[in-house]
Amino acid sequence: MSNNSNNRQTPKQLNDLYAAYKLVFNSEDGTTVLDDLKKRFHMTTPTFVAGDSHESAFLEGQRSVVLTIENMIANTKK
Q1: Positive or negative, the Cα torsion across 25, 77, 20, 58?
Q2: 42-75 tens-digit pLDDT
Q3: Distance CA 56, CA 13 (A)
Q4: Which distant-in-sequence residues (6+ apart) come within 8 Å of 9 by Cβ?
């Protein structure tokens, strides 16, 4: 989620979205899925591919989705 889309949401909508991410990804199934996404999309491995900036950017794009999910969970307001 980019900052631009965050700016179009009210604080309540954004807090509700944070809560939804937390609800989904803190469940047993959600944790299983998030762990799988971390393995598949380069959370513990380098995304740099020597000599191929396009592949590096592609891999980093995959990784950024998982980072967004983690940030949404971490930003949940109580």
Answers
A1: negative
A2: 999 999 999 999 999 999 999 999 999 999 999 8
A3: 34
A4: 17
